[in-house]
Amino acid sequence: MTTESTTFATLGLPAALLEALSAVGYETPSPIQAQTIPPLLEGRDVLGQAQTGTGKTAAFALPLLARIDLSTRFPQALVLTPTRELAIQVAEALQKYAARLPGFHVLPIYGGQSYGPQLSALRRGVHAIVGTPGRVIDHLERGSLKLDTVRTMVLDEADEMLRMGFIEDVEKILQKTPAEKQVALFSATMPSQVRRIAQTYLREPAEVTIAAKTRTATTVRQRCLVVPPPAKLDALTRILEIEPFDAMIVFARTKVATEELADKLAARGYAVAALNGDVPQQQRERTVNKLKDGGLDIVVATDVAARGLDVERISHVLNYDAPTDPESYVHRIGRTGRAGRSGEAILFIAPRERNLLAMIERTTRKHIEVMRLPTDADVDAQRSARFRQQVLDILQHDGKLAAVRALIADLEAQAPLADVAAALAVLAQSSSAAAPPARGRSASADTTSTQAPAEGGGRPPRPASLKPVFLREQDTSPPPQTPFADAAPPPREKPKRRERENSEPMELFRIEVGHDHGAQPKHIVGAIANEAGLDSHHIGRVDIRGDHSLIELPEGMPKNIFQHLRKVWVAGRRLEISRADGRGAAAPSRPAPRKPQKKPRKPPRR
After folding, report:
1. Where is this motif: Q motif (predicted)?
2. Per-residue model confidence as pLDDT tens digits over 364-396
3. Weakest mean pLDDT among 18-27, 96-105, 162-171, 211-220
4. Residue 493 CA to chain centroid, in angstroms?
5. What is the mean pLDDT of the chain?
6. What structural domains does the chain harbor?
7. Which residues are CB-contacts of 223 (< 8 A; sequence separation ≥ 6)?
8. What pTM, to 2 d.p., does this model score?
9. Which is deepest, 114, 375, 396, 590, by most CB within 10 Å?
């Protein structure tokens, strides 16, 4: 039977499951579903090898449900997954496919969630359990979970459980289940330890391998940009301005890097949150839900945190830090272009990482095109296009124009209408040109979404006087003439000692980075100039001490910039900037002469 002529009805699934599949719009099975469902329905063990996004969840979930006895509420099926996100996703899929199975109960159990709800559900009774190895072991040791009634066990993404160090826990769990059971093991790759698990615990399995001409989805367009590490943030900012994305996952290599990058993108006005192993589970769930609902546009994640994340809005995956191995790259870009949808994958490669790019191309069997970094002209053209669309959108809603027509008529009496329109356009663009594009929508459709605070981190919206910082060698904008100017910093030349004007009033600030941390004046000046939109001409003396430094900045720093600078990182530490007099710090390096103190005069007696 060929896949083309196969339908879910011909696979032997019960009518209740066929009705549920029809309700959610499933028509024909994917290759792995067509080859896996029949042997699982027959009760055979299955060893499946397929990449992420091929539909393997339904491949094991549907036969599992077909064999459930709804008359008894004991755990009859156990699915092990490497991550909490994947456990939730599989449990939701089981619940969706069981929509026509009255009384079916599935329980996801994973770390980071309170034991209370899990214990209550186990006492009430469940038919299927989806869990991570660590939390399943915890319940077994507590005695709150017994597996002697399990008839079907599924190991999902076994290679990832191996990579995360869960294989010993998986074996302990397998040993707690009955000898007579059905086992299905799915893995994108088959390293020796995963193969050993299969040989030990699977009995004459049906082996299903889904091979493709490429290891990645054909619906995903893959591009790379060769960019040195110091310029990656500037390159990302330009890409966010140009790419018409709906939602994006940006992959960073470490937990700290996700937080730092999310902070910097939030400061530029994007609705963004970090997702890593240190984020509490409730906050992780809220972040994923916000990404699904449009409350977030960007998630900066580590590999493990994004495992199992399937959000339809994700149109782009950007590898900010190149993955350490090609398999990780395949899993990363599998977050987009799923279920036949189109997607975009962009990879940042440092000049010294070109060998890694060649390895990725060999693994995916697909050439990755080199993209051009958007220029200033590209960014300006995109902003103009967004502004033009905003004008056209407003013109379509004539009711909004009635209130200002009288004002325009008055202005037209003083200048030609074309000049009035041009002046208004300049005024509008000067206040909104730096605003990030409305992802996947017309810019006027949701003018507040880009200013929404990020999930959980309490990150403020981008200060009005901060604009995206672009690559220095390509930025031709004139230097700002005033402190904290509302413009991007100018191209930076070789550092020169420039004396500020004596008439400019200055304040002394303390920052919590110094010689002990390897900080140099150029690091501090560069960071503050970039992040505050402040020309270095307006930065005074920098006095670097042991564990802190003192710096002179213009008086009247706006509160939003002051709060933003507190989170800026230099030499691996946050600046935590504060006014020196407010922190009891040492005096400035050029202290004013102290006046001799006079004894207070006693008031005359009356």
Report:
1. 6-34
2. 778 899 998 887 777 777 777 767 766 776 667
3. 211-220
4. 34
5. 78
6. 9-209 (3.40.50.300), 217-461 (3.40.50.300), 477-583 (3.30.70.330)
7. 344, 345, 346, 347, 368, 369, 370, 371
8. 0.47
9. 375
